Amino acid sequence: MEDKVTLDRIKLLHPSLVNEVDHIYRAQIVPALSGRAMCRFAFTLRTFKEQDDLYAQGRTKLFDSAGHRLGIVTKAKGGQSYHQYGLALDIVLVLDSKTASWDQTIDFDKDGKSDWMEVVEIFEKNGWEAGCRWKFKDAPHFQKIGGKTWQELLVKYNAKDFIPGTQYVNL
Questions:
Q1: 13 located within any domain
Q2: Cβ distance 41 to 113 under 8 Å?
Q3: Which positions ≥6 away from 156 have C-beta within 8 Å?
Q4: Whether the model pTM is above 0.70
Q5: Nearest to 21 by CA among 166, 103, 30, 104
Q6: What pLDDT digit, counting tens, does each position of 29-47 carry?
Q7: How confident is the model at residue 69 (pLDDT cuts 50, 70, 90)?
Q8: Number of domains present in the structure of the chain
């Protein structure tokens, strides 16, 4: 099943990736997950401030509004994540259109493969890097960076080397 939230978030990716990711999602991921779970893109484009707020969790922001201790969720400050350039996305599985699951082992559609790993394999076969393969695991994260470092992208961002009429850097 297609998820409207995900379709809207795809449009926030770098213009060079929008059509590719739309195709991956509609033609490959949606048909692959035929059970009660659907794939939602939890994050695509993230502002520098949003990234700094995430970086603060577990460091300078220790508790949430309910008083629960926060853990560290990212090693990247604003500008150091490919999310700021529209070159990354994070996923979550959504069950029955309401319950989020980050369980990487469950096979909701009973086809012999975990639904999470089906999504990983689809992105990898399309040339995307999966954060679940890193030493510092970031299982929901996928990126396609075209050989650019975040440092190179930050220089372009600070120089306002943007696609005309946008805030997306020229690649």
A1: yes
A2: no
A3: 169, 170
A4: yes
A5: 30
A6: 999 998 889 999 999 999 9
A7: very high
A8: 1
- The CATH code of the domain that includes 13 is 3.30.1380.10
From CA 159, how far away is CA 157, in angstroms rounded?
A: 5
Q: Are 87 and 12 in contact (CB under 8 A)?
A: no
Say if 167 falls within a structural domain: no
How many Å apart are CA 139 and CA 115, to the nearest integer? Answer: 13
Whether 171 is in a domain gets the answer no
- Nearest-5° Cα angle at 86, 56 to 2: 105
Contact between residue 57 and residue 71 where contact means Cβ atoms under 8 Å apart: yes
Give the count of beta carbons closer than 10 Å to the beta carbon of residue 53.
Answer: 13
Q: How does DSSP classify residue 135?
A: S
- Taking alpha carbons only, the member of 82, 85, 75 closest to residue 15 is 85
- Is residue 10 within 8 Å of residue 40, measured between CB atoms? no
**Looking at the domain assignment, is residue 85 inside a domain?**
yes
- Residue 119 carries which side chain, given as an amino acid letter? V
Residue 138: which domain range?
A: 4-46+81-158
